[in-house]
Specification:
Layout (H helix, E strand, L loop, with lengths): L14 H19 L18 E4 L1 E2 L13 E2 L1 H13 L3 E2 L2 H9 L8 E7 L3 H11 L7 E4 L16 H9 L3 E4 L12 H19 L5 E3 L7 H9 L4 E3 L18 E2 L6 H14 L1
Parallel strand pairs: 1-5, 1-10, 2-3, 4-5, 5-6, 6-7, 8-9
Helix pairs in contact: 1-8, 6-7
Bound molecules: zinc ion.
Length: 278
């Protein structure tokens, strides 16, 4: 399994602390967003603040593997979260939507949200068909290409065929590298290969530009960030929440991680933090 969670949830000892961290992140992001451009990026796109939800597994098995419980959301909770978004008037955007708006210097519509799934587990495709499609909602799937087969094959991972089917329903595939390595540990040539080749492989398979990266384990540093820019990405998302006080910069985009014990009240609190800060 690619994740053990230990690098990701360090320091996030309480849900209250997490909610506070998300609120601070949003506030800092919005304060920065009054500046039209972020000067330290070679791609001078306007920054933005949009809630980005991060999911890995949807299932009832969280407590049976304590190391994973932060990365599994109960099916009933997931449905309730989607219903809450619908009831509150949210619409789902993909990163291609966002980048197109950025390119035209058009602000994101209010009540926007991005739903993301990491790692390309086959069950995520089932969830998309059963839960997202009937609600008219779309998601972004960050896959690492080494895990993906041509057709459904029982490996536990989704196939390219299934990913193309998801794209036909409005969902989107973006990059999570080739082999899901700790990018900070790679030599510069291997790092460049992981970033650039994963883009090319996904682009060949799904037929659209791939411009967004999810750092494996959320781990990155300045060298990785620079290599990500040089490999042609325009945005990159994090995978932890304990360090979400970093602003909403385009290569440090924080995501909201919902865990097994986080009910609808926690979810609503995260989302309302964004609304209050707008
Ligand atoms: Zn991952």
């Amino acid at each position: 399994m690619p994740h053990n969670g230990t690098m990701l949830d360090r320091g996030s000892s309480t849900r209250t602390r997490r909610a506070q961290a998300v609120f601070v992140a949003v506030l800092v992001g919005l304060l920065l967003s009054v500046r039209p451009f972020i000067g330290d990026l070679h791609h001078a796109a306007p920054t933005f603040a949009v809630p980005i939800l991060m999911y890995h597994h949807i299932g009832d098995w969280g407590p049976s593997n304590p190391g994973w419980s932060d990365w599994v959301v109960k099916p009933a909770d997931f449905s309730a979260q989607l219903d809450w978004l619908k009831r509150e008037g949210y619409s789902t955007l993909t990163f291609r939507d966002i980048l197109a708006l950025q390119d035209r210097r058009v602000p994101l519509p209010p009540k926007s949200v991005v739903i993301t799934f990491d790692d390309g587990w086959a069950y995520q495709g089932v969830v998309a068909k059963a839960e997202l499609d009937p609600r008219g909602m779309r998601a972004v799937f960050f896959v690492y290409t080494g895990a993906i087969g041509a057709t459904p094959n029982g490996s536990g991972y989704i196939s390219w065929e299934e990913l193309r089917e998801l794209e036909r329903h409005g969902h989107e595939v973006q990059s999570h590298t080739i082999g899901h390595p700790r990018l900070v540990d790679l030599s510069t040539p291997v790092l460049a290969h992981e970033l650039a080749q994963s883009r090319l492989i996904i682009e060949r398979q799904v037929g659209h530009p791939v411009r967004v990266l999810a750092y494996p384990f959320g781990i990155h540093d300045d060298r990785v960030l620079k290599a990500t820019q040089e490999a042609g990405y325009d945005l990159a998302v994090r995978a932890d929440d304990s360090n979400s006080v970093l602003p909403h910069k385009n290569f440090h985009l924080p995501r909201i991680r919902m865990g097994y014990q986080d009910g609808i009240e926690m979810f609503a609190a995260h989302m309302r933090s964004f609304e209050q800060a707008r």
